[in-house]
Amino acid sequence: MRKPLAGALLALALLGAGAAPAAAAAPGSTEAPAVKAVDFAGTVALSNCSGSVVRVPDSRPEDPALVLSNGHCLETGMPAAGQVVVGRASTRTFGLLNSAGTKVATLRAARIAYATMTDTDVSLYELTSTYAQIQSRYNIKALDLDTVRPAQGRAIKVVSGYWKRIYGCNVDGFAYRLKEGDWTFKDSVRYTAACDTIGGTSGSPVIDDLTGKVVAVNNTGNEDGQRCTLNNPCEVDANGTVTVRQGINYAQQTYTLVPCVGPGNKIDLNRAGCALPKP
Asked: Which of 10, 71, 208, 265 has the lowest tally of Cβ within 10 angstroms?
């Protein structure tokens, strides 16, 4: 799991500050279409992780805003395998960042709308502020959750509000099952090696360079080359073959969240198309 680790601050200093936003191709270029400029606007810093203010296509300005992070980042500790949290009261705070990575506000949760480490590693907090209030007070819009599965090879950015650092790489592929200790995640995104995320990047939004939409949430990586242990997830294919990729990091897809968010931004696990684990 990508919580803050001893030595992570030193690693950040050695690796340097955040990556620069991607630039558009020059006029007349035969390169790929211009990419979105990815920055820190809408990301948040938690006490132990990263996150982002997100919305689904049907979210309305007057809806309470949602913050996306990891299930293992909960203030109450990691959910057990098979455990699902829905609608639990919370007063957790989040440091809201602007495009430059400067904290401009402290947002507060009303409840943990949804959290689990079963099949995925996700938490959604419902805030006491609406999208309209956040935009009018701080001129910051929520990030959009994509409604489709990310594509292999796509250029992505992992944006850490905790470290105020942006990692750039590509979707290398997908792990049919990703096993880490007691937990198993399904259809996880595997990064190319350039996204060498560190402790504190847990919960960072993974943003598609072309669309600017969130396609996944950063959550773990194999640190020591161990097999299927905590901080050393292994890949298991459909035939049961285990592969260990030391130094490679992973994220959990987020398009699966969209069908589960109903009117008023309320989590409804019985909505058509919602396949998230239930309590």
From this structure: 10
Distance separating the N- and C-terminal Cα atoms of the chain: 23
Q: What is the value of pTM for the model shown?
A: 0.90
Taking the C-alpha atoms of residue 257 and residue 41, their distance in angstroms, rounded to an integer, is 21
- Name residues whose C-beta falls within 8 Å of residue 158's C-beta, 6 or more positions apart in sequence: 166, 167, 168, 169, 191, 195, 197, 201, 204, 205, 206, 207, 218, 251
pLDDT (tens digit per residue) in 166-225: 999 999 999 999 999 999 999 999 999 999 999 999 999 999 999 999 999 999 999 999
In this structure, are residues 48 and 60 in contact, taking their beta carbons and an 8 Å threshold? no
SS3 at position 205? strand
Measured from the Cβ of residue 246, the count of other Cβ atoms closer than 10 Å reads 11
Domains of the chain: residue spans and CATH: 43-144+256-265 (2.40.10), 145-255 (2.40.10.10)
What gap in Å lies between CA 1 and CA 3, rounded to an integer? 6
